[in-house]
Specification:
There is one protein chain. The chain contains 13 helices and 21 strands. By secondary structure, it is α+β, with helices and mostly antiparallel strands. The protein folds into two domains: 167 residues, Thermophilic metalloprotease (M29) (Thermophilic metalloprotease-like); 196 residues, no CATH class. Strands 15-14-11-6-5-19-20-21 form an eight-stranded antiparallel sheet. Strands 7-10-16-17-18 form a five-stranded antiparallel sheet, with helices on one face. A four-stranded parallel sheet has the order 2-1-3-4, with helices on one face. Helix 4 runs parallel beside helix 6. The radius of gyration is 20 Å and the shape is globular. The protein starts with 7 loop residues before the first helix and ends in a 5-residue tail after the last strand.
């Protein structure tokens, strides 16, 4: 007799949601899952469900953080971040094969990189591989999604105890798996995000302003910008959810038209540097981050700015209100996917071409010239709270409230 583990049913429901709603796997489609070895249980559940709905082939590509640490400690300088030809060829085949790509997040070893040289750690990032993958996702050539995989290491960081079952309880709330009909709940939530997206697009704001304690930031919108949120379409017209969970409506700023100051309202995990960042304060002038200080993780932030070209410019602005299921879960996840969906945020680094129709056909340099930033990173930082007001500003200076007290209040045009 086989005894089911307590989390089996939750993991099965989770996999069904990710495969059927997240990447919407099509009959005969190839699926690629990117994971850490510690996330194998979730990766295998996703693979099983993908085959169940008709995937032709599923592969799991594991990235070992312990191997990265060994490289940072002992590899020759010129080998840091080196990407082999067969690795690039494999990644490029994803676009050719129109795969469904699932990336697992939730750091299983949050303290593993402690004590390493920040510069060597930054240079260990496989930038050439990132540069091969990002165009496929940022232009939606393929269906892709980012989802979490609870592990004991991640639970320890979030809860102070390696209680994976308890972490799953928070994930269930954030993913609406605690609802009687999760699929129906997601359909209703998706409709709400699309309604907000359409309301913002009908307004045609020239710029957006975030104003609250420590923050007074104005971001001009990129020429031709359209707001997005919820499910979107890939190049073949297949609907998918880029992030699960997702609570945002978002837009592309003109990287040249950003001014002001920022005070983060939530800690965030800077993945490339394996560092937790708290109380980050930024100064922005003429579209460039000119100053960065933090109570924790300051060196990691500065190291990324110094290493990654154009990471000092912004690529996204997003609005999240108090109805967020991630916020309702009551946890600080120390993971960008979840924590960005707990509050309104901005992101430095690359902007998404699907926010500016037509730019997917342009080269990166041409997108930059049109105001859409391009970089080999995308880092979301939460700056929203009940004390932060978000306004839309027209070209003539007319100001219209978008949020007040963490509530979406934009009136119908």
């Amino acid at each position: 007799m086989i005894t089911r583990e307590p989390l089996d049913d939750v993991l099965k429901a989770y996999a069904e949601l990710v495969i059927r709603l997240g990447v919407n796997v099509q009959l005969g489609q190839r699926v690629v899952i990117r994971a850490h070895p510690e996330q194998a249980a979730t990766a295998r559940a996703l693979a099983t469900e993908a085959y169940r709905v008709g995937a032709s082939q599923v592969s799991i590509e594991y990235r070992d953080q312990h191997l990265q640490r060994a490289q940072v400690e002992y590899a020759p300088d010129e080998q840091l971040g080196k990407v082999l030809a067969h690795e690039l060829a494999a990644a490029r085949s994803w676009g050719e094969d129109k795969v469904a790509l699932i990336s697992l997040t939730g750091n299983p070893n949050p303290t593993l990189m402690n004590g390493l040289d920040p510069d060597r750690l930054a240079r260990s990032a496989p930038l050439e591989l990132i540069q091969a993958i990002m165009p496929m996702t940022t232009t939606n050539q393929i269906a892709w999604t980012v989802v979490a995989a609870p592990t004991s290491g991640w639970a320890e960081a979030v809860l102070g105890t390696p209680d994976v079952a308890r972490l799953w309880e928070g994930i269930k709330v954030a993913m609406r798996l605690d609802h009687d009909d999760p699929v129906k709940s997601w359909q209703e939530h998706n409709a709400t995000l699309h309604q907000r997206r359409d309301m913002l697009n009908s307004r045609g704001f020239d710029r957006v302003r975030y104003r609250g304690p420590g923050t007074d930031l104005t971001l001009g919108l990129a020429p031709g910008n359209t707001w997005a949120g919820g499910a979107i379409l890939n190049a073949d017209g297949v609907e998918f959810m880029p992030n699960l969970p997702t609570e945002e409506v978002f837009a592309a700023p003109d990287w040249r038209r950003v001014e002001g100051t920022i005070q983060t309202t939530a800690a965030f995990f800077l993945v490339s540097m394996n560092a937790l960042v708290e109380d980050l304060r930024l100064e922005v002038s003429d579209g460039t981050i000119t100053s960065a200080t933090a109570a924790r993780g300051e060196d990691a932030v500065r190291a990324q700015f110094d290493l990654v070209p154009r990471s000092r410019h912004f690529g996204e602005i997003a609005i999240v209100d108090k109805d967020s299921a991630v916020k309702r879960s009551g946890l600080v996840y120390q993971d960008m996917l979840y924590d960005e969906n707990a509050g309104s945020h901005v992101a430095w680094g690359t902007g998404f071409p699907f926010n500016v129709p037509g730019t997917d056909r342009l080269k990166p340099e041409e997108r930059i010239n049109q105001g859409l930033n391009q970089a080999s990173t995308h880092v979301d930082i939460v700056i929203g709270s009940p004390e932060v007001e978000i306004d839309g500003i027209d070209r003539d200076g007319t100001v219209t409230p978008i949020t007040r007290g963490d509530t979406f209040v934009l009136p119908t045009a």
